[in-house]
Amino acid sequence: MYSEQFSLQTYNTFGLDVTTHAFFEYSDMQKCIDFFRAQRYKKPIFILGGGSNVLFTKDFPGTIIHPNNKGIRIVDETQETVFVSVAAGEVWDDFVAWVVEHNFYGIENLSLIPGSVGASAVQNIGAYGVEAKDFIHEVVFYDADTDEMRSFSNEECAFGYRSSFFKRRHDALLCISHLVFALSKKEKYFLEYGNIKDVLPDSTSLSLIQVRNAILFIRETKLPNPEFIGNAGSFFKNPVVTKDKADKIREKFPHMVSFPVSETEVKIAAGWLLDELGCKTFRVGDAAVHEKQALVLINLGHACGNDFVRLAERIIQHVNSKVGIELEPEVIFL
């Protein structure tokens, strides 16, 4: 599907009323390849998945490419591991539900994260102690600049905290076709992060569906549903600081929520930090900090992109002045 002057209001989870000069949606990779070969696009180009990690600050002057290809299939397996190929256009949580239903272990903690499967490789999504990079085996994509299909191993994707080769090159013409995930066939859970154990049933045995349901309960209790309240989930990254700096902050805030990253670095929970520093009352226009989770910025109805920009700037400046930490947004500003 190709359209011009296309509204993106239902294609970004903030629900911002913006348009794009051109919009192209494809259901299989050959159509994507044909589109680029025909050179019907206008630059700049942005590959937009579920729109759950993007802040449009204005109308987009170029072409939005939206993958809508589907498909989940097992491509290989060993005694302990199963390799599952998933099309980039699949809804992420639909994939997690499929994995849990088939009794494969690894990504159940990533339940209910909004967005598409393709975006999981771009953003290296993560939650409750688990990141997508822990299970992505391969990423297959079309490079429109060279007109060829390419494949990256996990190492070649250069994953970092909420980052990857694809995110750092989001201005390049790289369209992800599908991902291959390596999942465990043996029972293994990640339950040490947050309050997962607190909401699990009292039982000597666990199941994947119980863990998934616990994650669903936690997220639905704390986070607003973007179908009803515009938001992009966590707006800021959890800051990573030196252990010495963390110790100094803890002197002032003894109940600081943090997690060790290495022998010299500590990750501080940004949500706790914003809550502790009184950011939940911050608002610019109809852009506001969510009352239950300060890490989430919400659209109260008629916010524009620049409302969120100004709100983010206010939060960053406030946190920096109080504890000397400069927060970095997770979302991509366009």
Blueprint of the fold:
Blueprint lengths: L1 E6 L11 E8 L2 H10 L6 E3 L6 E2 L4 E8 L4 E6 L3 E7 L4 H10 L15 H7 L2 E2 L2 E2 L4 E8 L4 E6 L11 H4 L5 E11 L11 H4 L8 H15 L7 E5 L5 E3 H10 L5 E3 L4 E4 L1 H7 L6 E2 L2 E3 L6 E4 L5 H19 L8 E2 L1
Describe what you observe in this structure:
This protein is of the alpha+beta class. It has three domains: 2-67, Uridine Diphospho-n-acetylenolpyruvylglucosamine Reductase, domain 2 (2-Layer Sandwich), CATH 3.30.43; 72-184, Uridine Diphospho-n-acetylenolpyruvylglucosamine Reductase, domain 3 (2-Layer Sandwich); 230-333, Alpha-Beta Complex (Uridine Diphospho-n-acetylenolpyruvylglucosamine Reductase, domain 1), CATH 3.90.78. The chain has nine helices and 20 strands. It has helices at 29-38, 92-101, 117-123, 165-168, 196-199, 208-222, 243-252, 270-276, 305-323; strands spanning 2-7, 19-26, 45-47, 54-55, 60-67, 72-77, 81-87, 126-127, 130-131, 136-143, 148-153, 174-184, 230-234, 240-242, 258-260, 265-268, 283-284, 287-289, 296-299, 332-333. It has a five-stranded antiparallel beta sheet. Strand 17 and strand 18 form a beta hairpin. It starts with a strand and ends with a strand. The mean pLDDT is 92.
Based on the structure, what is the oligomeric state of the protein chains?
Answer: single chain
Query: What is the average per-residue confidence, as pLDDT, rounded to a whole number?
Result: 92
**Gap between N and C termini:** 23 Å
The helical percent reads 25-40%
User: Any idea of the CATH class of the largest domain?
Assistant: Alpha Beta
The total strand number stands at 20
Q: How does the helix and strand content classify structurally?
A: alpha+beta
What characterizes the major β-sheet?
5 strands, antiparallel
Strand order of the largest sheet: 6-7-12-10-11
